[in-house]
Amino acid sequence: TCQVKQRVTDAVRYRQNFNQDNFNVNVIRHARTSPDGKWLVFNAVGYLWKKALPDGKPERITNGIDFEFEPSFSKDGKSLLFTTWNDTATGAIHKVSFPAKSKPVKLTTEKGIYRSPSFSSDDKRIVFAKEGGNNALGGGFTVQPGVYIMPAQGGMAEFINAKGRNPVFVDNDRRIAYESPRSYGSYKTDGSDDRTIFRSTYGSQFIPSPDRRWVAFIDLHKVYIASFVQAGKTVDLAATSTDFPVKQVARDAGINLHWSGNGKQLHYTLGDQYYTINVEDRFEFVSGKADSTFRIPEKGISVGLEMKTDKPSGITAFTNARIITMKGNEVIEDGTIIIENNVIKAIGSTTELKIPAGAQVIDSRGKTIMPGLVDGHAHGNHFRDGLTPQKHWPYFANLAYGVTTMHDPSANSEMVFSQSEMIRAGHMTGPRVFSTGTVLYGADGAAKAVINSIDDARSALRRSKAYGAFSVKSYNQPRREQNQMILQAARELGMEVVPEGGSFYFHNLGMILDGHTTIEHNIPVAVLHDDVIQLWKNSKTAYTPTLIVCFGAMSGEYYWYQHTNVWENKKLLNFFPREVIDVRSRQRTMVPEEEYENGHILVSKSLKKLQDAGVIINMGAHGQIQGIGAHWETWMLQQGGMSNHESLRAATFNSAWSLGLDSLIGSLEPGKLADLIVLDKNPIENIRNTESIRYVMVNGRLYDTETMNQVGSSKKPREKFFWELNRNPSVFDWHDESETEGCSCGRH
Questions:
Q1: Residue 730 pLDDT more than 80?
Q2: Which listed CATH number (3.20.20, 2.30.29, 2.20.25, 3.10.450) goes with 317-436+498-724?
Q3: Beta strands per DSSP E along 234-385
Q4: pLDDT tens, position by position, 466-478
């Protein structure tokens, strides 16, 4: 035995409040400034808005119910193009007069996924992209994706080239410029003479000015302006380029880069802030004044869009139920829970509680009610970009299996936070969605976060917080002091840090010592001895082991493919593209049982030791298989020796506490939000009974989990998913093909 003294830093953890009546929208997408500089148009919470600059109040541009995206002005500013998406009707391009409110005109005649329309310089033609099928929107009507041209009044579209995104007319409409990954090029309007103009190791979103004197771009999150070099050959463009002038113009980050009509100003946004950079202020040779006087703006103009939080009205009473409150070990055997609007008003014995007049009463005799599941590590297919579906099937799969809160520790910030706000506003159905947004990735790549100073760390966290994040994920930052700088910045900004050690044992231990909020993924040593247990016990760092992707062993996911016929789960297939389920489960890996005994189950036994010592263990299903994966993870915690009640606590209260959400969710108590599940069977008797969910309630709205129709006092049937629209032959019960996603580590 060796006696060792270690200094353990307090973990960063802050109480979150997410039940305000109104909220400020942080995710401004597809922002464009009118040619006269008087208006800002943008997408937020699913729709297009306009704001009179500088201090007008945002208002809807149309009264449409289809989601609206990617506005683009005509050269005179009197017309606006935009795309729409409807899960049933698919996509279209529309044109609307501006700024007066008028009825949009649909320009396209064929169904498809339409992207980024743009006028020619004479406003007589439109260039746009058609996108191939994807995981969120389906694959119907996506033959021959690529760049197209059509008349500005609508009509037949002409295919130009399969290459490129965000196409625009250039060179007096003789060529079409486009973006590709890490490059920018152009070809003639017949698709020939393809030339690469810029290429970049880390750059993206290359936006030349209208006069082709400048090019704005993003390099490792930050925004730069460079001289547009007419070199007659491909130019390597980077923040560190020295062959031509390059200047940084955003302190932390920026998106929605676009130029003023005269090319003298660059506009961009970050969070709800709208920024304008005068080129002459940044380059000495333009104005003749020293650019040392230029200060990168810390704040811009606030867009100022405020939305009402969606909350139902009415009173619902569940009576005669067994209620597992997660308030300690409390179980009320014959209980009643009363919900008013979206809040629990009372809970207790059925014989003692009086049901308010006018309440809808749901007799839950023989059923068990418990808090909704809180998945602390839930990748929810948020890595993508582009258009947003009206129904995001991973949300429905999770709700159908009782997951009422998801925390996604690695996602596309723009996508995950915009959809989170859409749920909050009632424009999408889903669990509560929280996220770190884009991971603070330490390894090389175009999305890496360079952390070599405390100011680097502050900048990285500010850009995440701008979207609405209260947590960040550091991953593969190779040096301990880098993680410590991230933690210092987190303490200054009131944020949490949920890191992944990348399967490096000593990396994980340093994270515990330094005060991280959680450790994500299991430590790659199955058997933990007293030294590690005592260290962890004396920290406040929680643990989200994700046994479903167990490091150093067979992932626990394969246990359930081996022992259950997942492809026969009819309820799961109601909310899952069959192609995803079949690929993962029909051709399954079969291994001897000892591989699991010495794998995730052995890790789970160490989790039981840690829990008994006082370490908080969380359920996190990694998004491996939406919805049911949360149950597998909970069952695997029980396989290591946790009691059924302890496993349920890890899946509810523990995850909520770890993330600072426990004042509002995680247990059933008066004053907390109405997130709960109603089960036909008792999970205290058999942990596998967690799957027997009859109803799920999230934020006071009640759903039948077999159909995900909204029931109760407000009734609303679920509309069809893309694979239910009979776009394919019915000889075989198949679904539209869809792409799958992996997490940021690239291994899963």
A1: no
A2: 3.20.20
A3: 235-236, 246-248, 255-259, 265-270, 273-278, 301-302, 306-308, 315-324, 331-340, 343-349, 360-363, 368-371, 373-375
A4: 999 999 999 989 9
